[in-house]
Amino acid sequence: MDKENFFERVYDIVRQIPYGRVTSYGAIAEYLGTKGSSRMVGYAMNACGTAYPPVPAHRVVNHQGLLTGKRAFASPNLMQELLQSEGIEIKNDKVMDFKHVFWHPADLQTMS
DNA sequence: AAACTGACCTTAT
DNA sequence: GATAAGGCCAGTT
């Protein structure tokens, strides 16, 4: 189905998230131009399993850095394990140093 | 076509 | 500072 034009935008950005970095739904929505569609970003993630290649949805968290979407994974602890596997410290389902690991879609060229 | 849902964010109390 | 409600956009039923 090629009606996923909006979803593809979200998937494309999430796939470009660097290793050991996380981003927020609002940041992606803002980059897409639809800042108010922050909920849509998460909605698209719900269908991330239908998209290919699969997107690292575990790198996408809410504004608080809380793993709100962990329940959408096969196992709630899977998302936390994946983030910890990337060097991200998780505490109480929340990303530690969230500001430190926070990555913005337009921050690709900001890095050397 | 209308109403409901949703892995959110902002503002108000 | 924490909790409650509203607003926003797109998709699904």
TrEMBL record:
One of its GO terms (molecular function) is methyltransferase activity. The keyword DNA damage applies. Pfam families: DNA_binding_1 (PF01035). SUPFAM superfamilies: Methylated DNA-protein cysteine methyltransferase, C-terminal domain. Keywords: DNA damage, Methyltransferase, Transferase. It comes from the Bacteria. Residues 5-88 form the Methylated-DNA-[protein]-cysteine S-methyltransferase DNA binding domain. This is Cysteine methyltransferase.
